[in-house]
Amino acid sequence: MKQKLIFTNLVGEAVDGLVAELGNPQIAVVADTNTAQFVLPLLVNDSKAVAGATVITVKSGDVNKNIDTLADLWKKLSAMEATRNTLVINLGGGVVSDMGGFAAATFKRGMRCINIPTTLLAAVDASVGGKTGINFNGLKNQIGAFSEPEAAIISTVFFNTLPQQEILSGYAEMLKHGLLENSEVLGKLLASSPVYPLLDPTRLLPLIEESVLVKSRIVENDITEVGIRKALNLGHTVGHAFESYSYERKSPIPHGYAVAWGLVVELVLSHMLLGFPSDVLHSFAGYVLANYGAHQITCDDYPALIADMRQDKKNLAPDQINFTLLENVGVPRININATPEQIGAALDIYRDLMHIA
Ligand SMILES: NC(=O)c1ccc[n+]([C@@H]2O[C@H](COP(=O)([O-])OP(=O)(O)OC[C@H]3O[C@@H](n4cnc5c(N)ncnc54)[C@H](O)[C@@H]3O)[C@@H](O)[C@H]2O)c1
Ligand SMILES: [Zn+2]
Prior knowledge:
6-stranded parallel beta sheet, 2 domains, about 350 residues, globular, two-stranded antiparallel sheet, alpha/beta, Rossmann fold, 10 strands, Dehydroquinate synthase-like, alpha domain, about 50% helix
């Protein structure tokens, strides 16, 4: 990965240092309506570069990560007479880094950008690894590019205004990284509470750093996702099905919550198909139940959930559903197929573990 990763709570200093290293270019800060209100004023105080930048504000939320907002962003870059040498600073969650990163990758065939994540999910996931893009034609992340930012400046200083649900959502991706790494990293995460303000932000930064390094090591070996990067899909085959189905039922659940419950189901499958240790499965499920509650499903929901899993991009044949599973903590196996019967059995066990009648 060419992307530099800077972990610091002195964000202003870090931005100004980077901007100087990059030759003090013209700067466009991309923010959304929330980060423009809650985060930008903090950074304007601390960074000369940000104080002197042109600010482009986009509407917040994944529904606005679309072609219209992107076109508006391109227009605003044109209006400020941005050149290939202009630096884009994405100040926001994953919506801003995905869309601002894609605008930077495409405007005048590519300009440089840096990410300053302001949500936990963006800090541990979206701001690292170079996937950029927008939703299109009703499909998530349908148009995009692999394009790495120059750097990500990762901190916890902006999380004070973040709703608790967003903290929990990002923490689920950290749990995934812990499962992919080793028992020590996982153990530290399971021994902490993600619920703000119980988790002290200064204690959170080292955990975030550890988590990001798990992702960056995996991405480094497979930037365009032809092999091991698929390990990062752990929890997401079932997680995406829970998420899509919740939208179909008009009671949407946040992505990270869907991943937390998806991880439980996929650890059950890992136990069934690859002998993943049952004591770890039980303590993980207990942690998820205590912090995220239970996602209520009945066996009547299984056909719809399995139909959603069949839509997963990873599947190579229609009758097989492809998973990333674990033989043990830190031992992922990609391209493991499970049958609908095996998935149904795993969902039964999930309901037991989550105390769902
Ligand atoms: N590129 C990748 O590798 C990757 C990985 C995971 C997710 N994603 C994408 O990231 C997006 C989700 O990211 P997200 O969870 O950060 O969502 P988000 O960017 O929509 O942020 C969540 C909400 O929090 C608000 N917000 C952000 N920072 C804030 C702050 N400090 N204080 C108060 N409010 C704040 C936002 O305005 C938004 O309303 C999705 O579009 C997803 O597809 C991309
Ligand atoms: Zn995810």
